[in-house]
Specification:
Length: 683
């Protein structure tokens, strides 16, 4: 070992142990390192505190935008649901106009629906105006909330100055209601009036038709005591299937009576026998069989055929006496046998007549006797009078089948006249229904299309710029062992954007909103066909998240309730038209998750900035007036212009129209927003 080197070591190590000098140097080095590390930690802590303050400021600014989104979503839901509820009510009323027994209340329902649509238009205008006004204030509110949050991070040792800037500063929202783009109700009102008039005429015609049909049914099987069904049961051996009974004219069809009559006369023809052994009894039986056969032939092709365009009634009116029998085939057709007697050709009721002694003379008509072409038999004395007395007896009193059959036939003639007129009015009402359906479709399309586009300032996020004041260095760090730490101004930039909070139960927001409205009203009672219009609006409002499914279920309930009143074809057609139009809207489900502010890389937000000043972050930080807590001063200093806002301003977001003509204003106070450190608010 070299002597010099060894000598140096000897200053610190002697006889294998450390010297006092070595111990002193170690202590001094350790103290220097300790104080240097402490100074570094203190300096880094101050820098970290500035970044924390910037993060809190950015979150506070974005939280104002979050509050605005909640407000805008609730108002859009309120406007849309009120309009849809109004149209649903109107649609039910339109269908109700075509249902007898219901149409008296349908006009009130339509009026209620129109009032709701007009209320929707008023709400849309006030909500659009309120949201637009609030949007114009958003850049200032974002900055103000950021400034207050930033100042709240200050402590005894250091204070922070900063603000949050909306990115972008300008709005891209669209509010169609402010441009007069409202859902028109005039066409619905006009077509509803025309449909109401057509429906009134139709209802009157339907009542007359129903009365005529009921009269025919009473004669056939509806009347207590004697009727066609009862007489056929007494006078023939028809089975229950051939001779059915119906308890109501609503389920009865006129062709039932025709089938009954055909079966009845066939049975009478096949089963009639003389009521004794005399010639007169035999002649009477022959006359009855002739009349029954004639009646069976007459009714063979009888029918009542109804179509959408008309009704055809081909039902004969049987003769009721001899005079009328002379106008039928009973008088003119060659139905009776003759013989060549000494006095000449003679007509008999049958060849079994005792007066038929000569050779057969062929068949002859009863009119041949009156015309002198044949003679009346002196034994049976058979003539048109014998045949004519068959219906004369059974038609003149109610113990005869023909008595009720004639009543049925005459009522059926009246039914044909009434039904033809009814069908004519049905066509007119169908045209009015189509016009009303077109107006309904147009209003529904307009309602679905004319919705606001919400794109407020700060929609891409908020950028925070924060600087600190000079910090007071603790005395413990001011020593000869380390350099005094830097206590100068520090700055930081942060950014926050909105992200959906899937954990939030979105329905609570809308349910709470509607509940607060309901609690401030006396409710809405029944209007026409709807029990609770206010409650109906609430159901549509809560269904805002999945409007298609909610509306489908609602229309099923509303229109399904009308089926119990017995909807006719026209009412069913319009019901399907209204229901189909609502279902065809195809609303996409709305994500109602709450939007919460989250920190993000500032470059993600700054990429959407529309203010040149934001392009130089260092310049922004240097421009901040240290110590200021006035957001207006801070914004002015950094050259970020916003509309001047009074801190005590109150903005009316919307005016909710209620039954009875009253309104509830929804307002927001700027001071309330600024008074919540780290968050915005709306109400």
């Amino acid at each position: 070992m070299r002597h010099g080197f060894a000598g140096g070591i000897e200053l610190f190590i002697e006889d294998g142990a450390y010297t006092n000098l070595a111990a002193a140097v170690s202590i001094l080095v350790t103290l220097s390192l300790l104080f240097a590390v402490a100074s570094g930690i203190w300096s880094m802590s101050r820098s970290g505190d500035v970044q924390v303050a910037a993060d809190a400021t950015a979150l506070a600014g974005a939280n104002v935008v979050s509050s605005y989104h909640t407000t805008a979503t609730v108002l859009d839901a309120a406007v849309l649901s009120m309009g849809l509820a109004g149209l649903c009510v109107t649609g039910v009323g339109l269908v109700g106009l075509l249902i007898p027994g219901v149409n008296a209340f349908a006009g009130q329902t339509i009026d209620a629906g129109i009032r709701m649509l007009n209320a929707r238009n008023s709400l849309a205008v006030s909500a659009s105006r309120g949201l637009k006004t609030l949007e114009s204030a958003l850049p200032f509110l974002i900055a103000a909330n950021g400034t207050r949050t930033c100042a709240a991070q200050s402590g005894d040792a250091v204070s922070y100055t900063g603000t949050a800037l909306a990115v972008p500063r300008t709005s891209a929202s669209e509010f169609p209601a402010l441009e007069g783009d409202e859902v028109s109700t005039s066409e619905i009102e006009d077509t509803a009036g025309e449909l109401d008039a057509a429906a009134d005429e139709l209802v009157e015609a339907q009542e007359k038709t129903a009365q005529a049909k009921e009269a025919a049914w009473l004669a056939d099987c509806g009347r207590e005591g004697r009727n066609m069904q009862e007489r056929a049961a007494r006078l023939s051996g028809l089975s229950a299937a051939q001779n059915p009974d119906y308890a109501s004219s609503l389920t009865w069809d006129p062709n039932v009576a025709l089938d009954r009559t055909r079966a009845y006369y066939r049975w009478r023809v096949e089963n009639d026998v003389p009521e004794g052994s005399s010639v007169e009894a035999a002649a009477d039986s022959a006359a009855r069989r002739a009349f029954f056969a004639f009646a069976a032939e007459e009714f063979a092709s009888a029918a009542v055929i109804e179509t959408d365009t008309g009704v055809t009634v081909s039902v004969p009116l049987l003769p009721r006496n001899t005079s009328e029998a002379r106008t039928t085939a009973l008088y003119t057709d060659a139905l009776w046998p003759t013989t060549q007697e000494d006095a000449g050709r003679t007509l008999h009721y049958g060849m079994e007549c005792p007066g038929a002694q000569g050779a057969s003379g062929g068949m002859a008509a009863l009119e041949d006797i009156d015309a002198g072409r044949t003679r009346e038999c002196s034994v049976c004395k058979f003539s048109i009078g014998d045949v004519g007395k068959v219906p004369a007896a059974s038609t003149s009193i109610d113990n005869g089948y023909e008595y009720h059959l004639r009543e049925f036939t005459l009522a059926l003639d009246e039914y044909e006249t009434c039904r033809e007129h009814e069908i004519e009015l049905e066509q007119r009402a169908r045209g009015a229904s189509e016009d009303a359906g077109d107006a309904f479709d147009a209003a529904l399309d307009a309602l679905a299309a004319r919705r606001p586009r919400i794109a407020p300032p700060g929609r891409y996020g908020a950028v925070a710029v924060v600087v600190s004041s000079e910090a007071q260095v603790p005395g413990e760090l001011s020593t000869t062992f380390a350099t005094r730490p830097d206590s100068g101004v520090r700055g930081a930039i942060s950014a926050a954007a909105l992200a959906p909070d899937a954990a939030t139960d979105e329905s609570n927001v809308l349910a709470s909103f509607f509940s607060s409205l309901s609690s401030r009203t006396d409710g809405a009672g029944a209007v026409g066909l709807i029990d609770d219009v206010m409650g109906l609006w609430g159901k549509v409002l809560i269904a805002y998240g999945d409007m298609s499914e909610g509306l489908s279920e609602l229309m099923d309930d509303l229109l399904g309730g009308l089926t119990s009143f017995g909807m006719g074809p026209l009412a069913t057609w319009l019901s399907d038209r209204v229901d189909g139009a609502v279902r065809a809207l195809g609303f996409e489900p709305v994500d109602l998750s709450s939007l919460k502010p989250v920190l993000t890389d500032s470059s993600n937000v700054l990429a959407h900035a529309d203010v040149p000043a934001l392009s130089n972050a260092q310049e922004l930080l240097r421009s901040l007036p240290i110590g200021s807590t006035d957001p207006a001063d801070v914004l002015q200093a950094i050259g970020y212009e916003t509309e001047e806002q009074m801190l005590d301003a109150t903005i009316t977001i919307a005016e909710i129209p209620l039954p009875g003509g009253t309104t509830i204003p929804l307002t927001i106070r700027v001071r309330d927003v600024l008074g919540v450190v780290g968050g915005g608010g709306s109400g």
